[in-house]
Amino acid sequence: MSTLYIRLPSKAVADSMDAGAPMYCHFALASASGAVEREGVAALSELSEAAGRAQRVVVLLAASDVTLLRIKMPPLSGARLKAALPNLIEDHLMSDPADCVMVAGSSVDGLRTVAVVQRSWLEIVAKTLTGLGARRMSAVPSQLCLPYEAGTASAAITEHGADIDVAVRLSEQDGIGLPITADQPELAPVEVIQSVCAVVPHSPIILYVPQARVNDYQETVGAVPALDGRIALHADNWPRWIAGADKNPLDLMTGFGMSSGPSFNWRPWRWPFILAAAVLMINAIALNIDWLRAEREADSLRMTMVQIYKSAYPKETVIVDPMAQMRQKYAAAQRESGQIAPDDFVALAAAFGEAWGSAGQKPQSIAGIEYRERSLSVKLKPGTSVSLEQMQPALTAQNLSVSQPNSDVLQVRSGK
């Protein structure tokens, strides 16, 4: 599972850019084991392929964009804490809490760390990453991604042209961001070190600087003997940021209402789904064409039967079911000519009587016979036991079908 890590410039840098100008940022694509596969600096719009392929996108927000507050709070559950959080930190903010996204960490020493970021900026970041194809997103404060050693402050420098964002981690739960704009690039190390020393006046400092700027900062620190033993310089690298981001407990995307949990990756299944939809559509079209063809054949067959019926009985004006009406006419013609239809009373009674006798049944077992709707209803005397399975060969020989609605009644119909 690959993860794309992005270190964004601050909102102030983005606001100072010309409209339509690309926003460049540092990025790294890491494997599931944390090994860096790709890294560099690129415009955010150029990361669409990496964002779409990565299982997760982690944004390291500029430290100057995220305010960390250490506040004592009552013990509340997650939902109640989220509802009460704006009122609990309102006095610590200069802006309206409704314009901010805030996330509280776990309680340590009776205090909670609350990360606050401007809602409009986080919305822009989330929409941009969604447009690039990101599915799972996390946004963490950069200052809490720095390594921490007890009694020592750590700081990291991220350069975006003349704009420099300094992330300072003061303790395990606290940190700050310093935006610095260097009018003269050669004096940038001096301004950065002065600002960091103003924030951390006494403790030792571990300062992480870009690889290309290590010599410049070493010369600046070496020029001030008092700082030579207090500031330790190291070249910045992505494995350190990745390790810190994965351990960061504050995900501001959760406060924004976006889940950073696992989601199904639909992209590899896009073409199979399209193919399945196309097959279903073709089958549906074929079924509809077949149904229309069958309907036309049925209409043609009905018209043919109506024409045959009209030619045979030209005086008939009402034709509802030509097949049924033809059967009725045929049965009536048979009766008029003296022939007995298979479902007439005499034919049914004679055939049933022969089958009844062939099955070894006694005529005295029958209490009565009733003819209705071209079927015989034979009522048996009480105590008469009849097995339809034993009578079935005799009934079949007479082309009869028999059902037994209840124990003492047989329903006899012609099988033709």
Commentary on this structure:
- The chain has about 425 residues and is of the alpha+beta class.
- The protein folds into three domains: about 5-265, 2-Layer Sandwich (Nucleotidyltransferase, domain 5); about 270-335; about 345-415, Threonyl-tRNA Synthetase, Chain A, domain 2.
- The chain contains 13 helices and 17 strands.
- It has helices spanning about 10-15, 50-55, 80-90, 120-130, 190-200, 215-220, 225-230, 240-245, 250-255, 270-310, 320-335, 345-360, 390-395, and strands spanning about 5, 25-30, 35-45, 55-60, 65-70, 100-110, 110-120, 135-140, 155-160, 165-170, 175-180, 205-210, 230-235, 365-370, 375-380, 400-405, 410-415.
- The chain has a five-stranded mixed sheet. Strands 11-10-9-12-13 form a five-stranded mixed sheet, with helices on one face. Strands 14-15-17-16 form a four-stranded antiparallel sheet.
- β6 and β7 (about 110-120) form a beta hairpin.
- α12 packs across α13.
- The longest helix is centred in the C-terminal third of the chain and has 43 residues, at about 270-310.
- The chain is elongated.
- The chain starts with a strand and ends with a strand.
- The model has no long low-confidence stretch (mean pLDDT about 85).
